[in-house]
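Students often ask why we bother encoding 3D structure as a string. The short answer is that it lets us treat folding as translation between two languages. Here is a chain of 227 residues written in the first language.
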Amino acid sequence: QEAMDETCTGGERRRGHGRHPFQPRARLLCTDHDKATLKNMRYNVSEQPRHRNVQKAVRVERMDWSLESLEDTKFLLAVQQQFGPKHHSRSPSAKATVPQENNSTEQEEEKDNVYQDPIRLVTHLIGSDVHWGEATLDPLSSIIASFKLRNPDLSVILTIQERSPNSIAALKWNIEEKVRFGLSKSSLLLTTSSQHSCSALEGFSVSVRDVIHNHGENVMSMKMVEC
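And here it is in the second language, the structure alphabet:
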């Protein structure tokens, strides 16, 4: 997760025209569970020139790979504030209501469901060098599968160095199995409001391809894991 710091500093940006300020193209939420790393990430963001508006585009929040982290109200509120419409200020736990004079439609209910789960607002989950073998196999595959179950439209992109034989193949298999059959904890199972997820995840698979990374005189063999 430390490599998320690298991800957040490499976002695509566009230059302003005339007197218009520099505007980043993407909004990023960078995560880690280590206090020192989080402090360093926040410092890096705060040190960016104000006219670039990086502090408005990049947010740093604590998140570990436990499944409970995706149910944490503070984290979900951070996701909602970062990626949701800026005029909304309700807590993710607050139940959205429809005015009595208007009849609820399926489209309104779907919008309400999307709002209720801020994870549906995330478009990409990006990580670099986040897999270290048996120690990270279960938590990493579980958190990725959880994201996909709650947001099947999410794109996952991981760049990983294979440190032991078949470690990437094991990660691929675990993610696929957990997405196909659902995670064991009831809080992560699909509900009646997630019919779109059921159809979108049919035939789900994880792709792995080789990536050659040149780092000075060293050439590293990396794997790109995508789903």
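Translate back mentally: Residues 1-18, 94-101, 183-188 have pLDDT under 50 and may be disordered. Keep this in mind for the problem set.
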